[in-house]
Amino acid sequence: MKRIILVAVVLLAASVDMQAQLVKFGLKGGLNYANQSGSGITINSDNYDKEAITSYHAGLIAEIKVTDGFSVQPELLYSTQGATYKNAFEEFKNELGYLSIPVLAKINFNKTVSLDLGPQASFLLSERNNVNFKDAETFEFGVAGGLSLNVTKNFFLQGRYVLGLTEASQDAEVKNSVVQISAGFKF
After folding, report:
1. Secondary structure of the chain: what % helix, strand, coil (to 5)?
2. Which CATH number fits domain 23-186: 2.40.50.580, 2.40.160.20, 3.90.180.10, 3.40.30.10?
3. Using 50, 70 and 90 to split pLDDT, how confident is the model at 93?
């Protein structure tokens, strides 16, 4: 009986250790360089030029190892995006806060570098602007692609471009786009 219990404990410990190697959780955060593309927003029949804004993102990640060269990385991020609109007389900043859920396929070139590609769904949580635009869209769908660099076993850096495929505003044909630079820790 003692041998059966000992074998069961060893198998359970090995299973837990194997599961720990298959799934890693972590935190990440970084800078966004966000802009909006498409036809401009007109305010009182005036056209405005768009300029990018610098903002931030932060959240949780999970990396699920499928094979030695492939894993899936779902994330749950708070990300601010938008643009600054200006003409010769006025300047308005439109900043949108999203709960973004990218699900990325990670193709590992080696233990250090991986290519990350996948879809991203974003839900509008907040809208801060200095002008009375009509309502922003509450859901946005996009694609994300970039590179990850594992600096150590637990510390990583990422660079990513996210292109919005759906409209960000109900009153104009604008789509969000953002370049993200991140640092994170997996445990």
Report:
1. 10, 70, 20
2. 2.40.160.20
3. confident
Q: How far apart are CA 147 and CA 108, in angstroms?
A: 10
What DSSP assignment string belongs to 140-169? EEEEEEEEEEESSSSEEEEEEEEEE-S-SB
Burial label for 144, CB within 10 Å (0-12, 13-18, 19+), is buried
Rounded CA separation 78/151 (Å): 24
What per-residue string of b and e applies to 75-102 under the rule 16 or more CB within 10 Å gives b? bebebbbbbbbeeeeeebebbbbbebeb
- Centre a 10 Å sphere on the Cβ of residue 53 and count the other Cβ atoms it contains: 19
Pairing assessment for the beta strands 70-86 and 42-43 based on DSSP bridges: unpaired
Domain ranges of the chain: 23-186
Euclidean distance between CA atoms 31 and 68, whole angstroms:
30
DSSP one-letter code for 172 = S
Residues 6 or more apart whose Cβ sits within 8 Å of residue 88: none
Please check whether residue 165 is in contact with residue 144, taking contact to mean a CB–CB distance below 8 angstroms.
Answer: no
8 A C-beta contact, residue 74 and residue 63: no
The predicted-structure confidence for 94-139, as pLDDT tens digits, reads as follows 788 999 999 999 999 999 999 999 999 999 998 876 555 556 678 9
